[in-house]
């Protein structure tokens, strides 16, 4: 098999693994399914082992296929980076795939994208908005922006971008009808609007001047994994919400929402950029990381709690 054909076979195999089907891979590589099937069979014959188990619903990698996939991705990534290094010559170009949380993407990131694309006319950006963490390599994501009090250990590279403050807030109507909590433990008698929390969920942390108060609010009668929906619920007088400060700043200014238990604050969330470890970072990825780091530092500067 010629070197060029071997690289094509690697790309086809990686796409089959990503799509989970011959048909899905064929659409991506723009070939007919029969050609993809023959190329995969030829690759398995050359290697002398089965890489994929065929089922009626989906194709699954064998143990050998999983090992080969890791090597194949590394080889293709190195090849792509070598070609980019020669063609880009330090000029950002190409398609950048970015994953971000839905609310942050809509409210903060999209308004910044235009400035980035104006500064780099040879770059295109594909934005995927999803709150769940995804496999960056499998999904072909260059950079994932995530907001969390802490990140789970992983093999990804992490760049801390800023601190996103949160606030406890409620409508004046709710506080008038249910009373205003004066101490953290008073939250036990209130509806606290949070995303669904499992039995192993960490306590709600409230901080002031280095002191931390941990409270476990009772399960609210209304839960939702959408921050915009929790915002609407707070405005409707359904309870006390824990929301990003930037998202409710206008409500706090107008008085439609009121801060609760100030000057205590919920633990801040850290905005981070996650990206796969590479032997050489493409210019368009580096340009985006530097751009988003500078802009988010202006929007969410690090500051003392309290």
UniProtKB/TrEMBL annotation:
<keyword id="KW-0804">Transcription</keyword>
<dbReference type="InterPro" id="IPR036390">
    <property type="entry name" value="WH_DNA-bd_sf"/>
</dbReference>
<dbReference type="GO" id="GO:0003700">
    <property type="term" value="F:DNA-binding transcription factor activity"/>
</dbReference>
<dbReference type="InterPro" id="IPR000847">
    <property type="entry name" value="LysR_HTH_N"/>
</dbReference>
<dbReference type="GO" id="GO:0003677">
    <property type="term" value="F:DNA binding"/>
</dbReference>
<protein>
    <submittedName>
        <fullName>LysR family transcriptional regulator</fullName>
    </submittedName>
</protein>
<dbReference type="InterPro" id="IPR058163">
    <property type="entry name" value="LysR-type_TF_proteobact-type"/>
</dbReference>
<keyword id="KW-0238">DNA-binding</keyword>
<dbReference type="InterPro" id="IPR036388">
    <property type="entry name" value="WH-like_DNA-bd_sf"/>
</dbReference>
<dbReference type="Pfam" id="PF03466">
    <property type="entry name" value="LysR_substrate"/>
</dbReference>
<keyword id="KW-0805">Transcription regulation</keyword>
<dbReference type="Pfam" id="PF00126">
    <property type="entry name" value="HTH_1"/>
</dbReference>
<feature type="domain" description="HTH lysR-type">
    <location>
        <begin position="5"/>
        <end position="62"/>
    </location>
</feature>
<dbReference type="InterPro" id="IPR005119">
    <property type="entry name" value="LysR_subst-bd"/>
</dbReference>
<comment type="similarity">
    <text>Belongs to the LysR transcriptional regulatory family.</text>
</comment>
């Amino acid at each position: 098999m010629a070197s060029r054909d071997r690289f094509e076979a690697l790309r086809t195999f990686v796409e089959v693994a990503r799509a989970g089907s011959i048909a899905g891979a064929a659409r991506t590589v723009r070939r007919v399914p029969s050609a993809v099937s023959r190329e995969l069979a030829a690759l398995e014959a050359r290697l002398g082992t089965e890489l994929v188990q065929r089922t009626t619903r989906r194709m699954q990698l064998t143990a050998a296929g999983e090992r080969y996939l890791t090597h194949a991705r590394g080889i293709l990534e190195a090849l792509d980076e070598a070609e980019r290094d020669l063609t880009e010559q330090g000029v950002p170009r190409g398609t950048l795939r970015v994953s971000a949380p839905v609310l942050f993407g809509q409210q903060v990131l999209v308004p910044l994208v235009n400035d980035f694309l104006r500064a780099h006319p040879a770059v295109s950006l594909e934005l995927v908005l999803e709150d769940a963490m995804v496999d960056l390599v499998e999904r072909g994501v260059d950079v994932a922006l995530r907001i969390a009090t802490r990140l789970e250990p992983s093999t990804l590279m992490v760049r801390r971008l800023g601190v996103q403050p949160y606030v406890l807030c409620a409508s004046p109507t709710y506080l008038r009808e249910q009373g205003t909590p004066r101490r953290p433990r008073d939250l036990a008698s209130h509806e606290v609007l949070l995303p669904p929390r499992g039995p192993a969920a960490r306590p709600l942390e409230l901080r002031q001047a280095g002191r931390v108060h941990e409270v476990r609010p009772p399960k609210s009668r209304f839960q939702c994994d959408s921050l915009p929906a929790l915002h609407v619920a707070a405005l409707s007088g359904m309870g006390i919400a824990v929301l990003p400060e930037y998202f409710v700043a206008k409500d706090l200014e107008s008085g439609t929402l009121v801060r609760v238990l100030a000057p205590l604050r919920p633990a801040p969330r850290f905005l981070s950029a996650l990206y796969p470890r590479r032997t050489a970072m493409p210019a368009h990825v580096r340009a985006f990381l530097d751009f988003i780091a500078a802009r988010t530092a202006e929007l969410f500067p690090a500051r003392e709690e309290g």
